[in-house]
Amino acid sequence: MPSQPDDASTTDDDTDHPVGDPGATAERTPSEREESAAPDSTAIGLATAQQEARDAAEALLDHDFEGVIEVSMRDDGGWRTLVEVVERHAVPNTQDIIGRYAIELTETGDVSGYELRERYQRGDVKEEL
After folding, report:
1. Are residues 116 and 57 in the same domain?
2. Is the peptide bond before 92 cis (omega within 30 degrees of 0)?
3. Nearest-angstrom CA–CA distance, 92 and 94
4. Count of beta carbons in the 10 Å neighbourhood of residue 103
5. How far is CA 58 from CA 65, 68, 79, in A?
6. Residue 22: per-residue pLDDT
7. Three-state secondary structure readout of the chain
8. What would the pLDDT profile of 34-48 be if each residue is shown by its tens digit?
């Protein structure tokens, strides 16, 4: 029966690197890689930017929140988001008026600005190019 390695050569992170090996690099989760790569530990990620956009829409716009339809990182590390809100309810709901707003967030998630981009009737069909 093969001998078991002693404790000094076992692994602590399910990789092939022995414990105590200074050259060993443990596998990290995407969020751990993001945190270590971010110059400012208070910078937010994509999911947090999406939640911050939702919170901002609910706090700033006096309409029912419909959804976050786009989130993208800007060159400066901040976030550009597009959200939709129901500006006017109607019966049937295909006649609702939807407002599409751009909400700009800083890299830490603070709102730096917002603007109405478009209003349309829910039932309108648009062809995207």
Report:
1. yes
2. yes
3. 5
4. 25
5. 6, 11, 17
6. 44
7. CCCCCCHHHCCCCCCCCCCCCCCCCCCCCHHHHHHHHCCCCCCCCHHHHHHHHHHHHHHHCCCEEEEEEEEEECCCCCEEEEEEEEEECCCCHHHCEEEEEEEEECCCCCEEEEEEEEEEECCCCCCCC
8. 444 444 558 999 999
Instruction: Give the predicted TM-score (pTM) of the model.
Output: 0.65
Domain count, the chain: 2
**Residue ranges making up the domain that contains 24:** 7-37
CA-CA distance, 72 to 45, in Å (whole number)? 10
Residue 97, judged by CB atoms within 10 A of its CB (0-12, 13-18, 19+), counts as: middle
What the block records as the tokens of 104 is 């700009």
Q: Give 17's Cβ-side CA count (13 Å radius).
A: 12
